[in-house]
DNA sequence: GCGCGCACGC
DNA sequence: GACGTACGTGCGCGCA
């Protein structure tokens, strides 16, 4: 389309279709109850219009308004389903506003009674092209049909002009490269439910329909010969006759519309600014009005009003505009006057460009030179330290070199030879430096470097400033590789590691294989950059007011985590081996049973194939849900709904569970056992989860099964390292709810915790207005779900889904909950208000999460931000608390010189590999550390439970 | 190599 | 049918 000159284009907008789409987007979401002015109908229309004007700069345009709105055809459509008959009323309500907008923008209107925009373009295909114009039609999906040589040419979804026939859906899909049948409907300018009716017969899928059409030629022939069609199919065809005819009528484009093409009728004129202003005020489009009218934006490219960069359905439109879109971040900064953002921007420019700055990187190998360096390092107050190693698993690498930097632009690299004795000798010379207590160690992900050192027997005693963690507390979302941080905060792109060792893959080199002078430059630069990053990030830590969580939580924790990773946990290989065989047998049994019942062999592990078998071959559910990629959804929730009627589903679920357990846990764990220690050493990611939680990988020990009988067995494989030890597990009880109670100060909930009443029972008693002793199991279960939902900021919809109850009932429960626990409702509202005001929310330790979308005018985006606003302080405070507890436990253990070790953290649980004689001594210490780590407001008590046993399952 | 669907934890 | 459902990691499939 690029080669089309603008003055040869005419754009047609089907206003009614646009409103229709917006309207359905509205009513499909039950949470949208607003019937106010500022609805999606108007908004969607203006978005599409502005998008078009800004991107395509048409000189000629017309709105094709289906004037008999709803026209005969639209009326028929809404009759398809009785419950949608309310549609036209609201639709009509929006029309006057749309008309005002059209007048404001001074767009020519084509009013042709009783015809669709489709018909108009169909007709113009015969008449308009002669005038030398290309006619484009903007459909609700913003796909274009182009008029070429009197025919409408289809780009992406489009429609066939002229005397359009209804094609078999399959044929249409093939012809226009469309995956989903419902898109055909969009193409034809119709809406949703007619999906089932292409070619108009309910219950006849596209494949069957195509077959029928191929056999009889036309739809009319199919219907005429309906009696000859055998069985259920014939029945369906006969029953669906009327809707088939209607479908065809709906989709047929009329090409004899009484309209003539006159160039001047389509030419765009000046906007009527006064009228626009009036309409915008009326519709409360304040932001749009300000941007369109307050500034000279008009239709100049590069001046796309950012406030309307969402599509018809309220989704953010990315990269559609030729103008460089501002990031949402920038937008927030602008709207809230967030000076910190501006500060960030300044830093990029204020930062030194290392490339242009004289630097001195030196490789230190001679003993005398090392002595000199050590002497110097003993004097410095702050030292940046970095290691180069042979791999990324710190528990299984050799040191290749170390770099130090203490002055920007200067750095030293000390190569360490493959001969480990020689490397040890070099390290020995640095021992006094490592042992310094009066030094601040600076590094990027120091946990890694400390772990490498630990394997060589050294420890860093000084305090630490980890640039990765600094960035984590400054900006918990977003990426933070060193290259990225350098580019962003120093304005410099460092040498990328792939330039040394090649792209990742089987041919990637080992650091050991790279020439020393090459590594030296790279490694020294890393230390230099990290040092400079510290200078930049340090003031940001202060200005963002996150010193507390940074200095008191994250930095000290890194060392604790390092030690836990170093210790590892022993797994019982024999047990897993046996269990693997058992799982294998059972999985095979379930698999065979599925094939037998399905009557066909396929790959059961493939959701795609399974979906086809279940819903096409076995036809278990004629209304099977599909995923966004067009596959049948076969998730657990979907299958469970079919479970009571079909034994095959049971077997499928069993197969899923068994193979999941086998592949993810039983068979993988032994492969991650470290050769040196015979244990698995997980790695904790300290700067990944936006809420402040840790995450665990290689292996992930935070998702070991516990829910099901068979899954739970796996916990038996986690054992103490020798027979003189046991495992201890200590976990917080209802910690997140206690935090909710504490920070909201809700008297009812605080009281329940203070009295030590089971919180879900207490909740049920309140919500259902009964005595605690009279609460039924079901009431407690429902109350538990509500409590759970509160923590996640979930609404009635999610609750209903979770409990399998109606949304009405869910809403009732929630309303009652809010009444009984008014403090919680207030907390949720005030948290959202705080977020709107400040652009962030925070935990008790001052850990912040910035919510740039909290003031978004898009309800979906804003809703997401609002849920985060509620959830993050809760989840984050729980994360702060256990992190503080871990630091406390670690220091207590060191102080008492216990040999027992903390080895795992699973969000609200700590696991210890404990020496038997110490068990009774350390249990109260652990509990005390956990309870006192972070006292909650309003005297809400913090409780923890503890147990021990010969494996993790028993300890729990 | 990557996106997706699915499933495990808290 | 499409919209949404806290925070994570990892597996196998299917496609490029």
From TrEMBL:
Reaction equations catalysed: DNA(n) + a 2'-deoxyribonucleoside 5'-triphosphate = DNA(n+1) + diphosphate
Ranges of residues in domain DNA-directed DNA polymerase family A palm: 711-918
CDD domains: DNA_pol_A_pol_I_C, DNA_polA_I_Ecoli_like_exo, H3TH_53EXO, PIN_53EXO
Biological processes annotated in GO: DNA-templated DNA replication; double-strand break repair
Comp. bias (Basic and acidic residues): 319-344
Record-annotated 3'-5' exonuclease domain positions: 361-542
Enzyme nomenclature, EC number: 2.7.7.7
EC top class, as a word: transferase
Keyword tags: DNA damage, DNA repair, DNA replication, DNA-binding, DNA-directed DNA polymerase, Exonuclease, Hydrolase, Nuclease, Nucleotidyltransferase, Transferase
Region annotation (Disordered) ranges: 318-344
A GO molecular-function annotation: DNA-directed DNA polymerase activity
PROSITE patterns the record matches: DNA_POLYMERASE_A
Sequence ranges assigned to domain 5'-3' exonuclease in this UniProt record: 8-269
Family: Belongs to the DNA polymerase type-A family.
Task performed by this protein: In addition to polymerase activity, this DNA polymerase exhibits 3'-5' and 5'-3' exonuclease activity.
Protein's UniProt name: DNA polymerase I
């Amino acid at each position: 389309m690029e080669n089309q000159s603008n003055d040869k284009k005419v754009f047609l907008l089907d206003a009614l279709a646009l409103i229709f789409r917006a309207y359905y987007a509205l009513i499909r979401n039950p949470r949208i109850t607003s019937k106010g002015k500022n609805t999606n109908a108007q908004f969607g229309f203006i978005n599409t219009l502005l998008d078009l004007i800004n991107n395509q700069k048409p000189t000629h345009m017309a709105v094709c308004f289906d004037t008999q709105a709803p026209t005969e055809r639209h009326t028929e459509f809404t009759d398809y389903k009785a419950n949608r008959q309310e549609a036209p009323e609201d639709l009509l309500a929006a029309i006057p506003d749309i008309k005002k907008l059209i007048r404001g923008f001074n767009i020519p209107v084509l009013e042709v009674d009783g015809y669709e925009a489709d018909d108009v373009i169909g007709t113009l295909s015969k008449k308009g092209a002669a005038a030398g114009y290309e006619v484009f039609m903007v459909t609700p999906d913003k796909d274009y049909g182009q008029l070429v040589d009197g025919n409408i040419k289809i780009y992406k979804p489009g429609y066939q002009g002229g005397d359009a026939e209804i094609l078999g859906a399959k044929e249409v899909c093939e012809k226009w490269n469309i995956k989903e049948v419902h898109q055909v409907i969009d193409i034809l300018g119709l809406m949703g439910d007619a999906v089932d009716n292409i070619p108009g017969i309910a219950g006849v899928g596209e494949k069957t329909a195509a077959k029928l059409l191929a056999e009889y030629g036309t739809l009319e022939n199919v219907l005429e010969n309906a009696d000859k069609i055998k069985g259920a199919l014939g029945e369906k065809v006969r029953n669906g006759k009327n809707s088939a005819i209607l479908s065809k009528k709906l989709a047929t484009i009329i090409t004899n519309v009484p309209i003539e093409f006159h160039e001047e009728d389509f030419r765009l004129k000046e906007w009527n600014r006064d009228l626009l202003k009036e309409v915008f005020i009326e519709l409360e489009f304040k932001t749009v009005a300000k941007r369109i009218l307050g500034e000279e934006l008009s239709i100049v490219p590069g001046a796309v009003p950012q406030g309307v960069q969402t599509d018809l359905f309220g989704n953010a439109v990315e990269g559609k505009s030729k103008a460089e879109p501002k990031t949402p971040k920038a937008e927030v900064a602008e709207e809230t006057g967030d000076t910190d953002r501006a500060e960030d921007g300044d830093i990029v420019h204020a930062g030194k460009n290392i490339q242009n700055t004289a630097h001195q990187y030196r490789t230190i190998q001679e003993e005398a030179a090392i002595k000199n360096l050590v002497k110097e390092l003993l004097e410095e107050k702050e030292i940046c330290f970095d290691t180069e190693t042979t791999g990324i698993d710190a528990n299984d690498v050799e040191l290749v070199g170390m770099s130090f930097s203490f002055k920007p632009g200067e750095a030293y690299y000390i190569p360490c030879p493959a001969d480990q004795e020689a490397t040890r000798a070099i390290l020995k010379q640095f021992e006094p430096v490592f042992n310094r207590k009066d030094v601040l160690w600076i590094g990027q992900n120091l946990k890694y470097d400390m772990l490498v050192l630990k394997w060589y027997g050294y420890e860093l005693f000084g305090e630490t400033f980890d640039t990765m963690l600094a960035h984590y507390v400054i900006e918990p979302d977003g990426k933070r590789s060193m290259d990225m941080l350098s580019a962003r905060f120093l304005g410099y792109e460092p040498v990328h590691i792939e330039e040394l060792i090649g792209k990742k893959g089987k041919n990637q080199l080992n650091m050991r294989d790279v020439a020393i002078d090459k590594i030296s430059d790279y490694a020294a630069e890393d230390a230099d950059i990290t040092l400079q990053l510290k200078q930049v990030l340090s003031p940001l830590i202060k200005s963002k007011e996150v010193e507390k969580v940074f200095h008191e939580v994250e930095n000290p924790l890194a060392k604790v985590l390092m030690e836990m990773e170093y210790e590892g946990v022993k797994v019982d290989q024999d047990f897993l081996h046996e269990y693997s065989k058992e799982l294998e047998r059972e999985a095979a049994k379930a698999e065979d049973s599925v094939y037998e019942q399905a009557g066909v062999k396929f790959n059961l592990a493939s959701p795609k194939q399974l979906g086809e078998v279940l819903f096409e071959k076995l036809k278990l559910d004629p209304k099977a849900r599909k995923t966004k990629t067009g596959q049948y959804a076969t998730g657990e929730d979907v299958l469970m709904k079919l479970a009571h009627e079909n034994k095959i589903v049971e077997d499928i679920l069993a197969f899923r569970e068994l193979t999941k357990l086998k592949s993810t846990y039983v068979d993988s764990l032994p492969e991650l056992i470290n050769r040196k220690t015979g244990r698995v050493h997980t790695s904790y990611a300290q700067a990944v989860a936006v809420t402040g939680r840790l995450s665990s990988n290689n292996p992930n020990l935070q998702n070991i099964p516990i829910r099901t009988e068979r899954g739970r067995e796996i916990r038996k494989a986690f054992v103490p390292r020798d027979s003189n030890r046991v495992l201890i597990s200590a976990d917080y009880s209802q910690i997140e709810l206690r935090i909710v109670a504490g920070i909201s100060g809700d008297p009812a909930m605080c009281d329940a915790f203070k009295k030590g009443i089971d919180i879900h029972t207490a909740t049920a008693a309140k919500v259902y207005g009964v005595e605690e002793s009279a609460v039924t199991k079901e009431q407690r279960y429902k109350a538990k779900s509500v409590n759970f939902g509160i923590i996640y900021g979930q609404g009635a919809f999610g609750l209903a889904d979770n409990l399998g109850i109606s949304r009405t009932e869910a809403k009732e429960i929630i309303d009652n909950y809010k009444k009984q626990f008014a403090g919680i409702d207030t907390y949720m509202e005030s948290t959202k208000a705080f977020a709107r005001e400040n652009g962030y929310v925070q935990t008790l330790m001052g850990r912040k999460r910035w919510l740039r979308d909290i003031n978004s005018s898009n309800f979906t985006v804003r809703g997401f931000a609002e849920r985060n606003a509620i959830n993050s302080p809760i989840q984050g405070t729980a994360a702060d608390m256990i992190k503080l507890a871990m630091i406390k436990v670690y220091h207590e253990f060191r102080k008492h010189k216990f040999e027992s070790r903390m080895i795992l953290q699973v969000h609200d649980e700590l696991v210890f590999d404990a020496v038997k004689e110490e068990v009774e001594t350390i249990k109260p210490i652990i509990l005390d550390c956990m309870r006192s780590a972070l006292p909650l407001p309003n005297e809400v008590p913090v409780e923890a439970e503890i147990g021990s046993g010969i494996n993790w399952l028993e300890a729990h």
